[in-house]
Each structure stands twice: as C-alpha cells, then as structure tokens.
Amino acid sequence: MTTSLTEPPPPRVALGGTFLRGKEIGVVGAVVVVFAVFALANGNFAGVSNLQTMGVDLAQYGLLALGVSFVIITGGIDLSVGSVVALSGVWSAWLNVHAGLPDVVAIALALVTGAAIGVVHGLSVTVLGVPPFVTTLVTLVAARGAALALTEGFPIDGVGEVFTSIAQYRIASVPVPTLLFLGACVLAWLFLERTYQGRQLYAVGGNAEAARLAGIRTRRRVVLAYVVSSTCAAAVGVLVTARLTVGQPSIATGWELNAIAAAVIGGVGLAGGVGRVLGVAFGAILLVLINNGLVILHVSPYYQQIVLGAVLAVAVVTDRLRGRGAERDRR
Amino acid sequence: MTALVEATGLRKTYGTVEVLRVDRLSLAAGQVVALLGENGAGKSTLVRVLTGATAADAGRVDLAGRELRNGDPAHAQELGVATVSQEFPLVGEMSTAENLMLGRRAGSGRVVFDRRATERAAAEVLGLIGADVLLDQPVSRLSVAQQQLVEIAKALGRDPRVLVLDEPTSALGPVESRRVLRVARDLAAQGRAVIFIGHRLDEVREIADRVLVMRNGRLVADLSPEEATTGAMIRAMAGDEAEVLVEGDPPRPGAGSVLTVRGLEAAGIGPLDLDVGRGEILGVAGLMGSGRSRLVHALMGAARTTGGTMTLAGQPYAPRHPADAVRAGVGLVPEDRKRQSLLPVAPVRWNISLAALPRLARRSWLDPRAERTFTEDVRKSVKVRCATQEQPIGTLSGGNQQRAVFGRWFATEPRLLLLDEPTRGVDVGAKAEIYHLVESFAARGTAVVIASSELEELMRLAHRTAVLARGRLVTTIPRSGYSKHALMTAANSEGAAP
User: Fold this and answer.
1) Are residues B426 and B300 in the same domain?
2) Which of A222, B200, B276, B314 has the CA that lies 20 to 30 A from B28?
C-alpha cells in the first residue's frame, strides 16, 4: 500500500452559481436551442394551443420522470411506472363509475393504491433483497394485467366532472396538469435540497454502507423513494383518464422508458447519488419538445424514436465522459 | 537441496522511505517458509517483488535458475510462481469446477463447453490438495474455508513451483485453519517452495520449516523450527525498541465512566467486558481475525449482538442500528474508507455534515447558509485542505479524506468515538495530524475506542490497551506496561482459545 506524499493539485471548480451548476447547463441549453429551431421551422409550434398541448404532455412525462428520479438517486430503478399509470387510470375510473364513489374519493383511493404499490416495492428491495430491476419488472407485468382484468379489455366510460375539469380547466391559460407538475417540482426540490431526509436519500445512493454506518436508516429512505415514484405514476394515471374521459387499460405502454430517459438526460446518474430536480424537469421538457416538434413537422413516428434514442445516447455518453474526467482528477 | 528462489541486493523506496532492503535470500524446494513481521515491516513488498507484482529499484531475482524480468508478473507466472490472495477472487455464481478451469479449456470442444472434461480436470487439481469439495456447486454456497481451498487449488492449476499463501487462515476458525495448513505442508512435501505469510505464531510454529522475520524492510532473523519459539519470534518482530515507551502522552482522562460493557456477545466475539471513561482512549489490539472490527461494529449497532448489556453515560445502551448509536452520541470511523465511509462523488460539505444533519436541521429543514458555515468551521478544525467544500471528496488525498471523516463526527460532538484502523492508507505526515485529532476528541471529554493493527499507534495514543485473541479479551495492558513484546505475547496467547 502506498500513498502519494504530495497533495494533488486543486481540481477545477465548476462554473456557475448553485442554481445552474455545471451538469444541468447542457440540458437547459438544449431545450432553448430545440425550442428555437422548431419555432422557426413551423409557426404553429410556439402557438398558445400547441404550448398548452405540450404542457399537458409535460405533466405526464415530467411527473413520471420526477418520481423515477427519486428511485434512481437511491441507486435503484423503477420499471413499473407505465403499468401503474394504466392500473391507476382504470382503477380510479372503476371506483368512480362502477363502485359509484364520488370523484374526489375515487382519485384519492387511486393515489393511495399507488403509494401502497410503492411500499411493496420498497419492502421487497430492502427487506427481501430482491433487486429493484426484478421487483419492478414483476409489477410492470402484473399491474398491466390487473388493469386489463379490471376492465376486461374495454375502456370504462363516464367518469365524473372533477376528472374532466382537471383536464380542461386552465388558470391564466396554463392547464391544471401543468401547474400540478410545477408544484410537484417545487415540492421535490424543497425535499431533495432543503431537508436532511433529502440529503440522506442521496447518501444512500452514493454509498449505502457508508450511509448506514453514519447512522442513516437506509431502508426507510429507499422505501420512501419507491412510494414517491409509484404515487407519481398513480397521479399520472388519473391525469390520463381525465384527459381521455375514459379509463383505458392499454395506455402508457413503455412510458417507464421515457421517464428513465428524461431523468438520465437531465443528469440523474444511474449509479445513484447524483441528480437534481432542475435537470429532470428540463430533461422531460426536451423529450416533449422533440416528440411534439417532430409530429408538427410531419416526421414519421419511426424516425421520432430514432431521434429520441440519439438524444439519450448523447446524454449517456456525455455523462460517461464527465465521469471519466472526474476519475482522472482523482488520480 | 536446490534453491528455487534466489534474490540478491533487493531495494525498494517509496518517496523517501526505504521499505525493502534485502541483500541475500534463498528459498529451497520442499520447504514451508514462514514470513513474519508487523504491519508495514515489508513482508508484502518482498513478496510482491518476488512475484513480479512490484518492480524493485535494484537487485535481482532468480526463479528456478532463470532471472525474473523485474516487475513482470506474467513472467513470474511463467517461471512457476503463484500467489493465493484475495486479488484473484472467485466467481461466486459459477461452480467450483468452472472456477478452477476459468480461462482455460478442458476437453476437445473448441466452441462447446465440455462440462464432463472440465469437472474431470478440476477434480484432478483438487486431488492435489486432497480436498473434497463438491464440483458442481456454485462457490458462493461453499464455506469460507472451502473457498480458500478452492483458491489454493486454482493457484495450483498451473503447477507452480513456488506458491505464496498470503494470510490464508485469517478468516478461518481453528479447525478449518488446520485443514489449510495441512494442505500447505503437503504441497511442500511434493517438492514445491511454499511462502506462508502469517500472523498467528502458533500456526507458524506448527508448519514452518524455516521462519524469516522482517522489520523495517530488512530480514532480521532466520530461524530454524527449534529456534522459533514464540518468544524468539516476538523478540525478532518487536526489535530492541520494544521496551522503549513512545514519546508524548495523550491528555489525562477525565473522571466518570462513559461506556460499560458486560458479557457482550456477537458473532465471533465474546463474552467480554469493557469500561471506557470520559476522555479516555482505549486501544484494542489483536491479530487479524481476532474480532477487533467486529467488536467495534457491535458497539456501533452495525453488527447484531447476541448477549450482554451495555450502558452509555449511565443510560442502558442497546443499539439495533447505527442510527440508534448516533442518537445516543456514538460515532464510528470505519476501517475501509472507500467502501464504508465516503460518498465519493459528493462534495466535501456533504461528507462532513452527513451524520450531523438531523442536529443541523430545524424540523427537517436545512438552511444552506447555516450548513455551509457550520461545515466550514468543522473543516478548519479538522484541517481538511481543499479548494472549496463543494469539490467532490474523491479528488482529495487519503489523509484529507480521512480527516473529513473525522470531521463528520467532530460535528456531532460524540460521547464515544469508535475508530477502526484510523490511519490506514494515509501517509506519515497525515498520520501525525490524525493522532492530534484523536487527542483533541479525548481532550473534549469524548471516550475513544481505537482498534488498530499497528502497535506503535496504540502505544502512542491509548491510555490502556485491551488485547483480543479469537474473540475473547485476553488482558488489558495499562500504559505503564506497554511494550510491543507484551502486546504481541498477549495477542498470541493460547489461553484465549475456547
């Protein structure tokens, strides 16, 4: 064992204030550029009606990305969110239409169900030690099945007024779902950056054993992360049902991958312990801009997927290069 | 007798410290040669030079009559040297046979994996050491001793003439150790040279045909089995300075007891009793595998205890999780900084404030400015040198990282601080600063328990030193009775065997 007797040279310090710290600048810049390009290419892109559509899309992708980020920060992964969206969407509709519960109660119960799924995930990962990938893969399959079973494959029609007004109501021209997403961002930011439990979440992802030996109840933090993720997914399920005015069991297939992609594009490290709300939000915005812009420009849906894949690849490769740079600094 | 290993004029220097100075060494075939010495005496450096893992600054090594290309491990392997250590770990989910034949092909198939031929070849290798291990089981299901045997068998796969066993028994119980030792003997009887690096002197006496003792990078004794009494080996390891007390005393302990432990039992340790008072520094010595780390982890609530009672500052103390310990005012600086202490990509600030966060927060809320000021104060008092507290802690030197980990607990003002190998992997200058830190904890009234494999460290810092052997408390030696000789004798005492 040898240790160098010389101190390493002081490493470079990231530029920018605490708000725009190094990592997030890239994705924020990309959002600005992509928005400008699409707006110039097509006059309708930046119009109010399209902005409102994108806002509602953003609420869906963004909430999922936000929730999944909590899990990824602890060093886990949540593949189940797309299926939980579908289950929650039809479950809230079923409670409302078939069980005859008031709109608000049905929505609340759907959210509670989401939270319960999160608790099960968390306990499976921490107490049973089942890897997050496997735990949530089970739900990916099973929750989709439950959604189909509940509806026997047919949409549930006739949800109440609260549902429809969530989707249609606007405050100062901003759709309610978009406002909900912004509120969720503020809450997540407050939790992650301004409470000690939030900091402990990062610590668990950064080095679980070190966190435990420093007196952090790591299991509780991990369970909390899964609860946040599943509850966000359940909320998105309600939003989608509200938007479609029916409970559709086939919605949100593959959305978990969009959510994870948005998080990674926003600078959340898949190894855990790294990631900020600002980056996740802009990662989701970038995804929505690209999706919507390509549709407006009449690009074939197949090419859209290639573009999204390319964006993700760029994000992952930059992350790797940055990681390697940091390792070199450490030598 | 022919010499299999012949070394002349070996020198190795790190920085300004000469860690190896061996003028002549010759090892014969058919012998088990034990290599003894304290931590840092140069055992591993010598072995690494002999096996090509480290390049010597000067000197020449001949293996079976051919000169080893300096610092070329592949060449050493070609010349018939194999090392058994944790550096080439087993693949847990693969079977014993697959592990033994890893990287080689058995049978005639060029593409298809031939399971029968692999198991046949593996059985042959295992036969060399007479081990009966199930070939088709994943190695993760084997006991630690069996895994150790598989590792030895794996090293034998290339039919080496020189075999290095680096602490092969430190993780094993007495019965299992005996099996591994018998294998070492058999291998020597087959005409190989076996270099056995050990800590337990009773084992060394049991198997060695020759005992080499190192101190400060030199060979200081070359003993025959008749000469190698426990006393003689300890005298050689400890050297003349053994009776000299190290300069400088720690601050006087205050009055009052902080921690009392009665009949503590946990996996592999106990039952044992301990008392530590305010401002007192209690050393914990013992060989590898004697339970030093386990004791510390049990006190922290990080390892399950199975019996006994503890009190902390007069209150009953039964931590079930480190969080309980931290709340009661206990802190731990663990042994493996990278794996157990650091959040490597997180800033210095996060690493320092980690354990103090709940105290720092008001109803869960952290005030960033207050946290920064607080951390900056701690950083200054524990002297972490960095450009800003926002830089990742992974970019700092080992000594700075370790001081930051001390800062983490400095920030919580603990009643009891537990240290496990607190100066591992830090350089000499940083060591002295860490000693000062430990003393400043004690001066503030913190009770300190320091487990260490470096006797100088304990003699320098601890008011008293408790010596463990095989999980039991052998004796507690007061500062006035310190000598390496006394500590080593206690650590090697048989009286502790169950």
Assistant:
1) yes
2) B200
Q: What is the mean predicted confidence (pLDDT) over B458-485?
A: 91
Q: Is the pLDDT of residue B496 over 50?
A: no
The lowest-confidence range among B77-91, B191-205, B383-397 is: B77-91
- Angle CA B291–B296–B302, to nearest 5: 110
Q: What is the CA radius of gyration of chain A?
A: 21
Q: Does A202 touch chain B (CB under 8 A)?
A: yes
At residue B91's C-alpha, the angle toward residues B199 and B102, to 5°, is 100
Residue B251 falls inside a structural domain: no
A7 contacts B385? CB cut-off 8 A: yes
Which residues 413-472 in chain B show a CB within 8 A of chain A? 424-429
- B161 and B109 in a single domain? The answer is yes
Q: What was the pLDDT predicted at A62?
A: 97
* Contact check, Cβ <8 Å, B366/A196: yes
Per-window interface: B 375-404 vs A, CB < 8 A:
385-388, 390-392, 394-400
> How many beta carbons lie within 10 A of that of residue A263, not counting itself?
28
Q: Rank A39-53, A181-195, B252-266, B381-395 by mean pLDDT and report only the highest.
A: A181-195
Cβ–Cβ of A214/B354 closer than 8 Å? yes
Q: What gap in Å lies between CA B442 and CA A310, rounded to an integer? A: 58
Any chain B CB within 8 A of the CB of A13? yes
- Cα gap B238→B241, rounded to integer Å: 7
Query: In terms of residues, how long is chain A?
Result: 331
**Tokens 């106990």, located at residue:** B270
Q: Provide the number of structural domains found in chain B.
A: 2
Measure CB to CB from residue A273 to each of B322, B326, B345 and give the nearest one: B345
CA distance A4 to chain B (A): 7
- Asked whether residue B33 falls in the same domain as residue B102, the answer is yes
Domain region containing B361: 257-496
pLDDT at B445: 92
Q: Is the pLDDT of residue A328 over 90?
A: no
Q: What is the pLDDT of residues B242-259, one digit of tens each?
A: 444 455 667 777 778 899
**Beta-carbon separation of B343 and A211 below 8 A:** yes
Q: Which of residues 295-314 of B touch A (CB under 8 A)?
A: 300, 302
**Tokens 């030199």 map to which residue?**
B218
Res A326: pLDDT: 53
**pLDDT for the residue A331:** 41
Q: Looking at residue B222, which CATH number applies to its domain?
A: 3.40.50.300
Q: Which of A213, A314, A19, A272 is nearest to B335 (CA)?
A: A213
Q: How many CA atoms lie within 13 A of B10 on its CB side?
A: 30
> What percent of chain B is predicted at pLDDT more than 70?
94
Contact with chain A for residue B88, Cβ under 8 A: no
Of A10, A210, A273, the CB nearest to B387: A10
For residues A230 and A81, is the Cβ–Cβ distance under 8 A? Answer: yes
Kindly provide the b/e burial profile for residues B225-240, where b requires at least 16 CB atoms within 10 angstroms of the residue's own CB. Answer: beebebebbbbbbbbe
The answer on B226 and B291 residing in a single domain is no
Q: How far apart are CA A196 and CA A212, in angstroms?
A: 15
Collect all residues of chain A within an 8 Å Cβ-Cβ radius of residue B429.
5
Q: What is the percent of chain A with per-residue pLDDT over 90, rounded to a whole number? A: 77
- To the nearest 10°, report the CA torsion of B62, B65, B69, B75: -110
pLDDT at B38: 80
Distances (CA, A) of B148 to A204, B167, B202, B346: 32, 11, 20, 37
| Among B242, B268, B285, residue at a domain's last position | B242
Decide if B468 contacts B295 (C-beta within 8 A): yes
Of A102-106, B145-149, B198-202, B486-490, where does the model show the most confidence?
A102-106
Query: Cβ atoms within 10 A of the Cβ of A43, count?
Result: 9
